[in-house]
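Retro notes (design track)

What went well: tokenization of the new backbones is finally stable.
What didn't: we kept losing track of which sequence belonged to which structure.
Fix going forward: every design gets posted as structure first, then sequence, in one message. First example under the new rule, 362 residues:
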């Protein structure tokens, strides 16, 4: 029975070179007090000068860019196939005139990386979202011809105004028409003020554990409220981290819609597809939630046939120097065994069969 990892990242060497050439977030650099260790600084606020330089961002080693290390990690954790994606912040920060060519080069690089391991690697490509819409649409159409590409990874900023921006309609139309999945992944989190003046004392815990999932939840709720899935009924979106908190909050979201006087007056509470319909028709969820509690909410909301195993490699490595297996990966394996105790068939589907069917893998 195959195991497929659909949430696993890489920064191809050409992207790392780009980050090394930069001096503002996102960038890769060494600091005077540790000249032999490069650090990857990507998240907003992560290079705050009040943080000691050796705690800024995270150390970046070859596991971030060397595909041989990805394959070794897959072998070690019994993963047969991976659908690799560029990690955040993708190409969001590029000037408009550079984005189109950069996306082509990067997507070709990633497709070539997959070609080196036939049957083992596939990819979600990256869109040049800072370019004009015509450039984005033409890249979506070009991606259809790349053998290993199965969709696109995307953050929540869209063209700069979020995913409820109607100017994204041509992009959604092209993705729907070419039947490419959007893998919606957080990056920007919440404003750091919500973590309070002591936020820096807690490392990355609040932004990663809570900021990321809430960012995803808000982005997908805005898509829903703006009627994206009423206009694009076949647009498929895979939500990172088991949907952020959407499975848990879907009932509250729906209730707030039904009780909103402003929406009622505007005629927007009738003749709309509700969140439960979209969760079971357009949304897919990864199983990167590290506990059976969250996983069961995901299953209840979307169904075990729409849930797919993931690792988030190379993020969340074990902190012990001598650790062999990754706790983060084993937590996701254990959550699946526990949520589907007594139903091996459903567990196997989540571990691999669903991904093969949904993404059309060999
Ligand atoms: N941190 C990130 O910046 N991205 C991920 O995908 C996971 C952790
Ligand atoms: Zn991720």
């Amino acid at each position: 029975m195959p195991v497929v990892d659909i949430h696993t990242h890489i920064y191809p060497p050409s992207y790392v070179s780009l980050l090394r050439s930069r001096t503002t977030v996102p960038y890769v650099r060494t600091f005077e007090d540790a000249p032999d260790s490069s650090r990857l600084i990507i998240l907003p606020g992560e290079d705050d000068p009040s943080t000691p330089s050796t705690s800024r961002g995270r150390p970046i080693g070859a596991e971030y860019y060397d595909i041989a290390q990805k394959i070794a990690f897959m072998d070690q954790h019994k993963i047969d196939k991976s659908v690799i994606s560029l990690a955040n912040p993708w190409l969001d920060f590029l000037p408009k005139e550079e984005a189109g060519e950069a996306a082509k080069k990067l997507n070709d690089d990633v497709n070539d990386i997959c070609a080196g391991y036939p049957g083992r690697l596939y990819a979600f490509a990256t869109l040049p979202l800072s370019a004009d819409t015509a450039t984005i649409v033409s890249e979506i159409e070009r991606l259809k011809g790349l053998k290993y590409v199965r969709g696109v990874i995307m953050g929540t900023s869209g063209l700069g105004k979020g995913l409820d921006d109607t100017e994204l309609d041509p992009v959604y139309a092209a993705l729907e028409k070419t039947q490419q999945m959007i893998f919606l992944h957080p990056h920007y989190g919440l404003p750091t003020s919500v973590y309070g003046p002591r936020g820096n004392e807690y490392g990355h815990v609040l932004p990663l554990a809570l900021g990321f999932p809430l960012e995803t939840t808000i982005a997908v709720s805005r898509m829903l409220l703006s009627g994206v899935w009423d206009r694009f009924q076949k647009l498929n979106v895979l939500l990172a981290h088991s949907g952020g908190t959407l499975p848990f909050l879907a009932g509250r979201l729906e209730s707030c819609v039904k009780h909103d006087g402003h929406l009622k007056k505007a005629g927007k509470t009738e003749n709309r597809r509700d969140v439960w319909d979209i969760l079971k028709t357009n949304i897919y969820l990864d199983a990167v939630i590290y506990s059976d509690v969250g996983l069961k909410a995901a299953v209840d909301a979307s169904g075990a046939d729409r849930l797919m195993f993931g690792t988030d490699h190379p993020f969340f490595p074990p902190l012990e120097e001598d650790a062999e297996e990754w706790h983060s990966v084993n937590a996701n394996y254990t959550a699946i065994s526990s949520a589907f105790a007594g139903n091996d068939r459903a567990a196997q589907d989540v571990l691999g069969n669903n991904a093969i069917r949904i993404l059309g893998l060999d």
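Added context from the reviewer: The domain at 4-16+77-359 is CATH 3.20.20.140 (TIM Barrel).
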